[in-house]
C-alpha cells in the first residue's frame, strides 16, 4: 500500500472540521492566544486628540522666523488641556500633551534658545510638523481586530488603547490527552526494568496551552482494551477533542484502535512522514479523535504538522495552517519515500536563514527536538545539497 502524503492527509483532516461555536467575553488579562469571535470596531479615535510628538513649543508655523523672539504664554503638560493658543506667541508643550486650538506646529526645543520668558527660534517649521493628529492611529468605527484572529500581546494593547477591558472570544477548546502504554510511569519514580518515563504528554500539553487551548491531561492508560474504552468515554465526556499517544500500530497490544472503532470510527493512515508514519484519526463518542504515535519525537512532529492546523481551524482561527519559511540547507541530504522533518537550528546567515541539522535524527532521540529551533521539511525523493533552499517550520510559537 502506498503511503498517503502529509498534504493530502491535512486536506482530508481540514475538510472534516466542525468549527466550534461557543463564545464568551473575557477580560484582556485572560485572552492572550484566544481566537476573536467578532470583528472589533474602535469606539473612539486614537489618539483621541491632536497632540505633540515632541517636547518643544506649539506655534503657528507662519509666526516663526529665525531669530525673531516669541513670548511663551502658557505651559501645557501631558494630561492637561491648555488655553487657546494666542497668535504670535509660543505655548510650551510636552510630548503627548494636547495641541492648543489655534496652533498648527511644534517647534522642537532643540531648535530654540530660551531667554527668560521668550524663545528665539533657530529654525522654521511647517504646519503639521511634529503633531500626531486625532485618529492618526485608529478611526472611530473602523475595524481594528478581525473575527478569527488569534490574539497576540500587541492586540491586547490595541484593544486597551480604544478603551476596551474585555473581548469576545471562542471558548478555548478542551483537549483530553491520554498516554497509552504499560511501560509508562510518571516522574519522579524509580524505573523498574522495562519501564520508561511518560514524556510525551509534557510537550503536547504545553504546546496546546501555548496555542490557547485548554489541555486536560488524563494520565496514563494501560494496554488493556476495557480500561482504554472506559478512559475514552471519560475523555470524550469531559473534552471537545480527544488525543492519545501510542498504541495505534497494528501490534497485538495496541488497543486504542479497537476501542475507538467500538465507540465511533477510526482510520489509520500510513503517512509519508518521517518521523511519524502511523496516525489515527476518527471519532470517539462523537468527539474528534487523534491517535498520535507513541514515539516522543513523532508525537510532537505529527501534532504540529497535522493536529495543530485541525485544532486551530476548529477553534475558529482564520490562519490555521502552519507557515513554512524559506531557509538555506547547511547540509547534504537525500530524501527517502517519506516527507522528512529534520531537526535543525535556524540561524541568520549572510544570505538568509541557515538550517543546521542535529547529528542524530533518529525518531527516538528527544534531545534532537529539544536542541532544534525548527523542522526542515524535505519532500520525498528530493536531493538536497548544501546551499539549496529548504523550507522550514519554526518550533518557536
Ligand atoms: P507505541 O506507539 O505504543 O508502539 O510506542 C512507540 C514507542 O514510543 C515505544 O518505544 C514506546 O515505549 C514509546 N512511547 C509510547 N508512549 C510514550 C510516552 N508517553 N512517552 C515516552 N515514550 C513513549
Ligand atoms: Mg504502546
CATH superfamily of the largest domain: MoaB/Mog-like domain
- The appropriate CATH architecture of the largest domain is 3-Layer(aba) Sandwich
DSSP strand count: 28
Domain count, please report it.
Answer: 4
Which structural class should the secondary elements be placed in? alpha/beta
Global shape: elongated
Note the gap between the termini: 35 Å
Q: Which residues sit in consecutive blocks of at least 5 with pLDDT less than 50?
A: none
CATH class (first level) name of the largest domain = Alpha Beta
| Structure annotation, total helices | 7
Provide the list of bound ligands, each named once.
Answer: adenosine monophosphate, magnesium ion
Helix content: 10-25%
Q: What does the radius of gyration come to?
A: 30 Å
Describe the structure.
This protein is α/β, with parallel strands linked by helices and 397 residues long. The chain folds into 4 domains: 158 residues, Molybdenum Cofactor Biosythetic Enzyme, Chain A (3-Layer(aba) Sandwich), CATH 3.40.980; 51 residues, Molybdopterin biosynthesis moea protein, domain 2, CATH 3.90.105; 82 residues, Beta Complex (Molybdopterin biosynthesis moeA protein, domain 3), CATH 2.170.190; 71 residues, Beta Barrel (Beta-clip), CATH 2.40.340.10. It is built from 7 helices and 28 strands. The strands form 8 sheets. Strands 7-4-6-5-9-8 form a 6-stranded mixed β-sheet, with no helix packed on it. The chain has a 6-stranded mixed β-sheet with strand order 16-13-17-21-20-18, with helices on both faces. Strands 22-25-24-26-28 form a 5-stranded mixed β-barrel. Helix 1 packs parallel to helix 6, helix 3 packs parallel to helix 6 and helix 4 packs across helix 5. The longest helix is centred in the last third of the chain and has 19 residues. It is elongated, with a radius of gyration of 30 Å. 39% of the residues are buried. The model has no long low-confidence stretch (mean pLDDT 95). The chain binds adenosine monophosphate and magnesium ion.
